[in-house]
Amino acid sequence: MSKTVSMALVRDQKTIGPLVKLLTLEAPEIAKNARPGQFVHLRVNDGPAPLLRRPLSLAGADAGQGTLTLIYRIVGQGTALLARLKTGDRVDCMGPLGAGFDLDCERPLLVGGGMGLAPLLYLAGALCPRPVAVLMGGRSQEELFWQGLFAEACRHIHITTDDGSLGRRGVTLDLLPELLAGGEFDRVAACGPRLMLEGAGRLAARHKIACQVSLEDYMACGVGACLSCTCAGADGRRRKVCADGPVFWAGEVFAL
Amino acid sequence: MMLNVDLAGIPMKTPVMTASGTFGFGPEYADFVDLNRLGAIVVKGTTLKPRPGNDGRRIAETPAGMLNAIGLENPGVDEFLAHTLPKLQGIDTPVIVNISGNTVEEYGELAARLDVSGVAGIEINISCPNVKEGGIAFGTSCASAAAVVKAVKGNTAKPVITKLSPNVTDIAEMARAVEAAGTDAISLINTLLGMAIDIHSWRPVLGNVVGGLSGPAVKPVAVRMVWQVARAVRCPVIGMGGIMTARDAVEFLLAGASAVAVGTANFVNPRAGVEVAEGIRDYLAEKGLTHVRQLIGRVNDFTGR
Questions:
Q1: Size of interface A-B (CB pairs under 8 A)
Q2: Does residue A233 sit at the B interface (CB-CB below 8 Å)?
């Protein structure tokens, strides 16, 4: 599981949703070692401003092709610079970083809110052909371009939107209780807003289903050195989101 | 052998160290860089008891820099001695332990606890801007800084480096005070106290409200302070503050630093410590020089100071 810094080649970049980009990088060494839930840390320019790397979760990795898939939303200066990358450009890419998802399950339910669906897409592909279900939430229909991306790997897709423009009106946590009540799942894997993760962890615990959550936080180094992204574990011990996570068992980081 | 330096009795293969708080304990970066090729590793600030650090957001990017308010999160000296230090024994690079106390006595106790094999030196942190007690409180008064240095020197046989805060009116006065108290070397600068405000929420960006500014943005301030201190004291000076490249490092050496430390650059380029050393070697060759010591303090400032 060795980590490297390499100048990845941009294979392709396209817009797939409102301000959302899908970036395909050629980085064979990273692709070979990557697993779902891990992330890469990208430099967005050569100069000192913006200074820090940007952590992006892997939405896919293909060891055979030597490629990485990243899906991100343009939210600030750094991602705006990334969005300018064109086929043939090079980008300084560090990874794969962090601890990924546990794959030892038979009937997983993936729960994702907004851009939290990116690492779950990689996970869905890795778990296929096991029967994978996904519960995805977004503000409105336009944000659920994810439906098409998950269609190949997932048997069942459940959707909620804040405005009811697609699927059930509400948030993922409104629909999750009835999905879990069916008793068909042996694992929940969630990524999205912290409150959603905590709620998913609680509901899964109530049904005695093992649950993993992928956290995010502001980070500088990405390797556990700067301690920008640590959080208190349920046992009182500190956890580094970048190095001990970003994927944790829900009970490690939330009092369930 | 163009780069080797002896820093107050600590032999280093290169004059490029890693700055405390930016390189963990070292192994965090072992996948990316050969730790044996660094001048020295200065490990994360260590306290007597474990510290959880500050609540809320801890970093904010700023123009050519960053603010941090980690708050000295660390597992404590017992954990360091029992589990971390043994893991560093296989590395052929001096390990310097940065220490921080709430009281003068705690600094002395930490120095005593760390007076063990495998620790090459002690760096006294009297300049952390992010903790309520201790830290910078000791670093902004000559008398209390001197008291801390005396307490540490009285409890260790290791070389002692005192890390100064830039958040003072007269940096040369602070340097003279800690030298008189017996420090073997001085490192500077720690971060500059700064603040960022979210204009949408109208709240401070950092959970701690204020934090320490580092990165290329602070380099000119750091070079100026290293220059002032190098002229004020006889002990060796370790220069740091925004060093990203060998060119940056050479500025510090010319200003009077005997060694330099790479800090925030590690976050951007994990190989920065090694690449800066390689770049200094290339610079020496390019200038027809044979040893890094030929650069130290050689700025032609014509001020007569």
A1: 92
A2: no
| Cβ-based contacts of B32 with chain A (< 8 Å) | 3-5, 94, 223
Query: Chain B: residue nearest A227 by CA?
Result: B70
pLDDT in tens, A25-65: 999 999 999 999 999 999 999 999 999 999 999 999 999 99
For chain A, the maximum distance between any two Cα atoms, rounded to a whole number of angstroms, is 54
ipTM value: 0.94
DSSP 3-state of B122:
strand
Domain spanning B5-294: which superfamily?
Aldolase class I (3.20.20.70)
Q: According to CATH, what is the number of the domain A4-96?
A: 2.40.30.10
Task: List, for residues B217-234, the tens digit of each pLDDT value.
Answer: 999 999 999 999 999 999
The predicted pLDDT at position B130 comes to: 66
Q: What radius of gyration, in Å, describes the C-alpha atoms of chain A?
A: 17
Residue of B nearest to A5 (CA): B32
Least Cα separation, residue A217 to chain B (angstroms): 8
- The parts of chain A modelled with pLDDT lower than 70 are 1
DSSP-assigned letters across all residues of A180-201 = HHT---SEEEEES-HHHHHHHH
Domain boundaries along the sequence of chain A = 4-96, 108-253
Check: CATH 3.40.50.880 for A108-253?
A: no
